[in-house]
Amino acid sequence: MTETVCVVGLGYVGLPLAIEFDRVGKSVIGYDVDSEKVSELSSGTDPTGDVTDEGVAASDVFFTTDPAQLSDADFVIVTVPTPVDSMENPDLQFVESAAETVGKYISPGTTVVLESTVYPGATESVLVPALESESGYTVGEDIFVGYSPERASPGDTGRGVRDVVKVVGANDERVRDELAELYGSIVDAGIHRAPDIETAEASKVIENVQRDMNIALVNELAIACDHMGLTTEDVLEAAGTKWNFHDGYSPGFVGGHCIPVDPFYLTYRSKREGFSPKLVLQAREINEYVPVHAARKTVKTINDSGRVLQDTRLLVLGLAYKPGVGDIRSSEVGTMIEKLDEFDIDCVGYDPHADPDASREVFGIDVTETVDFEAYDGVVVATAHDEFAAYDLEAMAAGLGSDPVMVDVADVFDADEAAAHGFHYAQL
């Protein structure tokens, strides 16, 4: 008998998951509360950009806004956002709401899997009570629960669902094995069985905390090198010649929905247990300061070029939070633009992946849909989109005119080559 999998939440995590389960022959229900999104998916359009229109159109996934369809599922996989609130505390309202909806329609014997990033203990303290309250069933007897953290990397085509080891956690061996078999049907990279739900929850926040801290280290080193008059890239290249130096990290912005958020999920639970992880919080402070540092570097570079700040017009290349995607939510580029605005520097944005209208609303600046360097005095390269790396420096400099400014936050261009073409060049 064909198993039925219902994926709740059809964003950059849930949609690829639904498509993969469909690929291996599962009966798949894709549920979302966003009627516009469901309408697009039903017509064969991929609003996330991660699966492609062709991939959606070729699938047999049943997309719906009708929660009653959940009653047919053997497995319900919850992939909803888990942001932080204005006080940087975990905001689990979407998890709780999804659990309540699932609880109203769940059938006995169904296993619910949470994939959303949460603090250790949240599955059992938030999801389970909501499920039991709405369903009247008992978890572990009538219905079952597990946790398997999403590891999606939007825009990274080489690391899709099939390519990344899947962690599965449950508090009993039967459910753990059940989840390993379910995910094993779509994941080629292998399955890691965590001994319990909390271990699986902690593993997700810690893997992103580690990345946040590593980037914070090179960001702080970059700021220190800048004060000492050293080129960070050259210093890291030299240091990287030692066998035990951990390379692969470059200074830059840390935006998005995961890395800037997940440390607060770890520290929230840890503080409740009596310990405040200072290093984790300091890393966040450093990374949150980098857009301010980038703005100050930009101001200094403009001043060094002999231009008047208030008469300078800059083209900000890249508004998305990372290369290869159009997602502008939680992009640190906005903080940099706000700081530049304090100096009355006129900024215009351009991003070949981001929606122009949404960008205008989010960043509060003009956004162009075509690039004409003659209209600007300089550029700030904020996101390392491949399209920008293909730009010809000579043509850029000629268009910008005399004493062109380039602040290469994303480290896309070669410093010596830029200088050779007359740029007043700076990088982090």
From TrEMBL:
Residues 315-415 form the UDP-glucose/GDP-mannose dehydrogenase C-terminal domain. It holds the Pfam family UDPG_MGDP_dh_N. The keyword Oxidoreductase applies. GO terms for molecular function: NAD binding; oxidoreductase activity, acting on the CH-CH group of donors, NAD or NADP as acceptor; UDP-N-acetyl-D-mannosamine dehydrogenase activity. It comes from Haloferax mediterranei (strain ATCC 33500 / DSM 1411 / JCM 8866 / NBRC 14739 / NCIMB 2177 / R-4). Its EC number is 1.1.1.336. Keywords: NAD, Oxidoreductase, Plasmid. It is an enzyme of class 1 (oxidoreductase). InterPro entries: 6-PGluconate_DH-like_C_sf, NAD(P)-bd_dom_sf, UDP-Glc/GDP-Man, UDP-Glc/GDP-Man_DH_C, UDP-Glc/GDP-Man_DH_C_sf, UDP-Glc/GDP-Man_DH_dimer, UDP-Glc/GDP-Man_DH_N, UDP_ManNAc/GlcNAc_DH. The keyword Chloroplast does not apply. This is UDP-N-acetyl-D-mannosamine dehydrogenase. GO terms for biological process: polysaccharide biosynthetic process. It catalyses: UDP-N-acetyl-alpha-D-mannosamine + 2 NAD(+) + H2O = UDP-N-acetyl-alpha-D-mannosaminouronate + 2 NADH + 3 H(+). The gene is wecC. The lineage of its organism: Archaea, Methanobacteriati, Methanobacteriota, Stenosarchaea group, Halobacteria. Belongs to the UDP-glucose/GDP-mannose dehydrogenase family. It comes from the Archaea.
